[in-house]
Design goal:
With 99 residues, this protein is mainly α. It is built from 5 helices and no strands. It is 73% helix and 0% strand. Helix 1 (11-29) packs across helix 2 (36-43), helix 1 (11-29) packs across helix 4 and helix 2 crosses helix 3 (47-53).
């Protein structure tokens, strides 16, 4: 009988899984309500693996928040670059800032 082992996930894939798990858990349980054990279990990794990728839980939060802001700003800049007039840009800026 032949046994096929799937290759181990890459470092980048593991890091992504940790960040995705953190985003979900921080949203549902809050930062203080989420333990590193919770994060590891949700990401499917050992708790020690978390600390190979991040120095502490706060650094995971910073990465999640930074990624979120980059996504928001990228979307906004894309939308603004497709607009033809400064008036339209001003309307989008007002809508996004006060909604």
């Amino acid at each position: 009988m032949r046994v096929f082992n799937s290759p181990a996930p890459s470092e980048a894939q593991t890091r992504t899984r940790i960040l995705q798990a953190a985003q979900k858990l921080f949203a549902s349980k809050g930062f203080d309500g989420t333990t590193t054990r919770d994060l590891a279990q949700a990401a499917g990794v050992a708790e020690g693996t978390l600390f190979r990728h991040f120095s502490n839980k706060k650094s995971i939060l910073v990465e999640v928040a930074t990624t979120g802001w980059v996504d928001i700003l990228t979307d906004l800049l894309t939308e603004l670059s497709e607009m033809g007039s400064y008036k339209a840009i001003a309307q989008v800026m007002r809508r996004r800032m006060w909604n």
